[in-house]
Structures are given as structure tokens and as C-alpha cells.
């Protein structure tokens, strides 16, 4: 069968450039420049098919440049072509070999088209998700971005407290509760706290109490006294002219407004995410796996789309990238290499969170964690990565077979969560001395020198 490869260097602002190469990575005709118009895309397909028999196989190779790949891929797959996305690092390495001192769109497209000639390993056809699968992926990614921004805002607020009002951190709570944010938004200025006094401050706290904090009782009075003491300590530390607390109050209010905005956006996203998740995975078997709860279920499904894109469990594990690099030289293998940078960071985060929760509930996963920590001398993160790869096997089986996960003991008998935790408590509790020995701290390193 005749084969032909097309390398496409995607342009974000300018036109895209395509180079057609034969089986020996030789150029077939001049490069093709095209834009995202029907006429240009039809012209591109016509040039690719020129002189090819009906049964010819055409493979298109491109980098995942932003989302510029998506409309081009949609069109080419509809035309019956196979599309492959390759990592930028692979393209860069091959370009250095083929064209060390020059770089252009034409050269990059030729390099992309030449990649299959250097070996097909890792060059699998692109899985194109449905519109709803793509929507779930994008919404869960957006939620992840908002969560990251919320964490950054909380860190920023804590930094402001620590340099402007060091005593306030102990007076408030470690988490940004509703009452904490209300106090910071209105009474970050210590001079204003002193002017208001304990009685009015306690009344304000009662109006803004939420969650587990009591409305009645001594809670509000005690918090008001702590705030006044923190304000007094700050004034004693800085005096009146060292920090402009009025303008700093404006900065704090803006940070809190960002925090509240992102929390509100997440609440809206959660409704749409849950609706899409229920439509794409109505049996909800994914959440029957220990460690995968309300939030991680849609996030994992959004990142993976479908078990069909992977075929087997090995390819799924490889796609997620939770495995160390391999280094072997001179007949000697070097263990304890870093985790590869392949795979989605969001998927890695979700899987490690799920694995850490699952190993406390599932005895077979607890055994893996225990063996890695106690028998093989690994540290916590390495052990969690090993658990996460086993968890991926469960995810693949549940999605493929369409059945809920059944928690079992080490002999394969179904058990309850309480019975599973009892087994883990009895047999797979990692001693604290082992945990401490796996941690490399400055103190321990200094003691050995």
C-alpha cells in the first residue's frame, strides 16, 4: 500500500505550512501555505491526494500548538486521513539533527513529516473527542485553573498578613473562613480595629459567622479580643507612619473580591460539569472506586474521555505519565529516576490525590503502598505513584466493563469499607520511624556532615 506523510507547522497568527514527504522522508513538491478557510483546506487535501491511488494511506503529523490543531484535525479526519500529534521536544530534537543552524516554518513542517521515518513508536492516531467530551474536559480544566488561582490568592493574603500584621495570623484561623474574610475585608487596618472597640467588633463577627462557628456564646467576644490585641501589637511594632494601612486595606479587599469571584465561578461550573458527567457516564461506576469522589470523577473522565482511545491498560498508564525515567549505561541500571514530564499535570494531580485516599481504604492498594515504603525503601511520593498506576488499571476495567468496583480483601472476597480499614490498620500501617527515615531534611543532612 502506498503511504504518504504530511507535516504541518501550525501558525497562530500567520498561515499554516504543510510539507508532503514520501516513505524515505523526501519532499514531494513545494510546501503548501494555507489558512482556515474551506477553499484553502480543500486545496490542501487536493495537493495531498494528487497522484495517489484510492487505497493510499495518508498520515498527518503536527504539534499541539494551542488549540490551532483542532479545526485542522477535524477537517483532515473527515477526509479519511490519520492525524498524529507529537511532543514539541521530539520535534526540537529531530530539527537539531536535520537542520542544526536554521529554523523556519518550512523546515519545521519537513521535520514533522519526517518523524515517522525514524520509527513509529509513540506515533498513535489522534483520538478526537465528541463535542460533549471536549466540553467536559475544558470545563474541568477551567475549574482546575480557578482552584489554582484561589490557592494563589490565599497565599497572597497570608503573605500580606505576615508582613503587615504578624500577630493577626494567630488571632484569626488558618483557613480562610467566611468570618475571617469578612474581618480582613473590613478591619485589616489595626487603627480602625482600635477605634471600633470590642463590643462593635463582636457584633460584626456575629453577623458574619457561618459554618461550624457558633452565633451565640463566647466565640465572637473572644475573637474580638484577639483582634484588638493583634491590632495593638501591630501598632507597637510599626507605629503610625511605617505602613499605609488605608491603601493596604484596598489591596486586601481586591484580593478577597478575586477569591469570592473564583469561588462563585466554580459553583456555576460544578452544575454544568455534573450535568455533562451524568450524560456521558450515567451509571457513575467511576465513583465506586475508592479515592474517586464527587470532584475527581468528572475531572478524570474529562481528561481521559474514553477507555477506547487507549485499548489496553499499559497505554493508559503511559498516557498519564506516572512512571520514572529509565537510565541504563554500561550494563548498570540507575534506579530512582525522576518522574517523566509526559502526561497531563491535572491528571497527575487528580490521580495522586485519589491514590492517597484509596490506599487508606483498599487493602490491595494499601499493600502496594506498604511494600514500596517498607520493603523497597521508597519515599511517600514514589509509593503514591505506584498506587496510582494500579488505580488506573481499576479505572480502565470499570469504564470498559461497565460495572461498579467491588471492594475486596486480599483473598478476593467482597468486604465492607469498615472491614477494609480494619485489615489495613492491622497489616499495612507504615511505622512512623520508616516515614521519618524516608524524609531528607536539612537537620538530618546536617547531622551526617
Folded structure, characterized:
The chain has 449 residues and is an alpha/beta fold. It folds into three domains: 3-128, Ribonuclease H-like superfamily/Ribonuclease H (Nucleotidyltransferase, domain 5, 2-Layer Sandwich); 135-268; 283-325 and 339-447, no CATH class. The protein is built from 18 helices and seven strands. It has helices at residues 38-49, 69-78, 88-98, 105-114, 131-164, 168-171, 178-187, 190-207, 219-238, 245-280, 296-304, 313-320, 345-358, 363-375, 380-401, 417-427, 432-438, 442-447, and strands spanning 3-9, 16-21, 32-34, 57-62, 82-85, 327-329, 332-334. The strands form two sheets. It has a five-stranded mixed sheet with strand order 3-2-1-4-5. Helix 7 runs antiparallel to helix 8 (190-207) and helix 14 runs antiparallel to helix 15 (380-401). The model is unreliable at 441-449 (pLDDT under 50).
Structural class: alpha/beta
| Overall strand count | 7
Number of domains: 3
* Shape verdict: globular
Terminal CA distance: 66 Å
Computed Rg: 29 Å
Amino acid at each position: 500500500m502506498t503511504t504518504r506523510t504530511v507535516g504541518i507547522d501550525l501558525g497562530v497568527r500567520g498561515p499554516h505550512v504543510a510539507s508532503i514527504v514520501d516513505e524515505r522522508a523526501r519532499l514531494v513538491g513545494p510546501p503548501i501555505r494555507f489558512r482556515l478557510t474551506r477553499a484553502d483546506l480543500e486545496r490542501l487535501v487536493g495537493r495531498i491526494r494528487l497522484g495517489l491511488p484510492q487505497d493510499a494511506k495518508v498520515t498527518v503529523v503536527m504539534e499541539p500548538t494551542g488549540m490551532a490543531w483542532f479545526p485542522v484535525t477535524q477537517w483532515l479526519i473527515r477526509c479519511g486521513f490519520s492525524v498524529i500529534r507529537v511532543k514539541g521536544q521530539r520535534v526540537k530534537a529531530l530539527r537539531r539533527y536535520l537542520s542544526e543552524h536554521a529554523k523556519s516554518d518550512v523546515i519545521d513542517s519537513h521535520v514533522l513529516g519526517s518523524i515517522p521515518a525514524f520509527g513509529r513508536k509513540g506515533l498513535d492516531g489522534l483520538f478526537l473527542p465528541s463535542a460533549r467530551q471536549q466540553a467536559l474536559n475544558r470545563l474541568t480544566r477551567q475549574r482546575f485553573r480557578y482552584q489554582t488561582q484561589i490557592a494563589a490568592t490565599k497565599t497572597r493574603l497570608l503573605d500580606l498578613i505576615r508582613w503587615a500584621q504578624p500577630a493577626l495570623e494567630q488571632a484569626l484561623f488558618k483557613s480562610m473562613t467566611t468570618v475571617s474574610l469578612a474581618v480582613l475585608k473590613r478591619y485589616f487596618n489595626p487603627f480602625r480595629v482600635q477605634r471600633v472597640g470590642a463590643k462593635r467588633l463582636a457584633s460584626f463577627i456575629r453577623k458574619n459567622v457561618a459554618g461550624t462557628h457558633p452565633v451565640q456564646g463566647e466565640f465572637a467576644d473572644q475573637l474580638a479580643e484577639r483582634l484588638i490585641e493583634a491590632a495593638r501589637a501591630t501598632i507597637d511594632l510599626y507605629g503610625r507612619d511605617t505602613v499605609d494601612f488605608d491603601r493596604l486595606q484596598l489591596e486586601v479587599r481586591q484580593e478577597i473580591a478575586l477569591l469570592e469571584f473564583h469561588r462563585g465561578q466554580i459553583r456555576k461550573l460544578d452544575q454544568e460539569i455534573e450535568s455533562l458527567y451524568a450524560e456521558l457516564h450515567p451509571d457513575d461506576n467511576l465513583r465506586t472506586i475508592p479515592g474517586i469522589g464527587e470532584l475527581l470523577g468528572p475531572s478524570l473522565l474529562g481528561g481521559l474521555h474514553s477507555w477506547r482511545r487507549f485499548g489496553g491498560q499499559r497505554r493508559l498508564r503511559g498516557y498519564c505519565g506516572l512512571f520514572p525515567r529509565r537510565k541504563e549505561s554500561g550494563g548498570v541500571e540507575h534506579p530512582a529516576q525522576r518522574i517523566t514530564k509526559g502526561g497531563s499535570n491535572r491528571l497527575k494531580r487528580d490521580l495522586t490525590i485519589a491514590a492517597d485516599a484509596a490506599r487508606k481504604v483498599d487493602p490491595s492498594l494499601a499493600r502496594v503502598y506498604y511494600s514500596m515504603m517498607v520493603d523497597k525503601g521508597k519515599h511517600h511520593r514514589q509509593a503514591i505513584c505506584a498506587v496510582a498506576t494500579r488505580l488506573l488499571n481499576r479505572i480502565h476495567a470499570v469504564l470498559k466493563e461497565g460495572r461498579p468496583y467491588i471492594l475486596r480483601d486480599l483473598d478476593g472476597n467482597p468486604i465492607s469499607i469498615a472491614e477494609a480499614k480494619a485489615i489495613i490498620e492491622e497489616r499495612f500501617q507504615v511505622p512512623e520511624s520508616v516515614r521519618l527515615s524516608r524524609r531528607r531534611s536539612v537537620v538530618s543532612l546536617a547531622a551526617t556532615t
